[in-house]
Amino acid sequence: MKQLLAAFSLMFLVISATVLASQMDVRFAKFDINADGEISLTEATKHDNLLKQFADLDENGDQVLSEQEFEKFKL
């Protein structure tokens, strides 16, 4: 019984992580207009809230946001 419960718990965690990752991909794609895998400052100017946070999110100062940098974006 414990093994079954553990298996269901693990399955739930995997499914939850997959759904959350999928939502992040969709959200990132919304801002990555040219689909080059990063959000440029030009792309960010089309979204006021992202533009306001851009400098703080751009940890390495390269004027583009990677998916990892974008994960910290708050709507």
Automatic annotation (TrEMBL):
<protein>
    <recommendedName>
        <fullName>EF-hand domain-containing protein</fullName>
    </recommendedName>
</protein>
<feature type="signal peptide">
    <location>
        <begin position="1"/>
        <end position="21"/>
    </location>
</feature>
<feature type="domain" description="EF-hand">
    <location>
        <begin position="45"/>
        <end position="75"/>
    </location>
</feature>
<dbReference type="InterPro" id="IPR018247">
    <property type="entry name" value="EF_Hand_1_Ca_BS"/>
</dbReference>
<dbReference type="InterPro" id="IPR002048">
    <property type="entry name" value="EF_hand_dom"/>
</dbReference>
<keyword id="KW-0732">Signal</keyword>
<dbReference type="InterPro" id="IPR011992">
    <property type="entry name" value="EF-hand-dom_pair"/>
</dbReference>
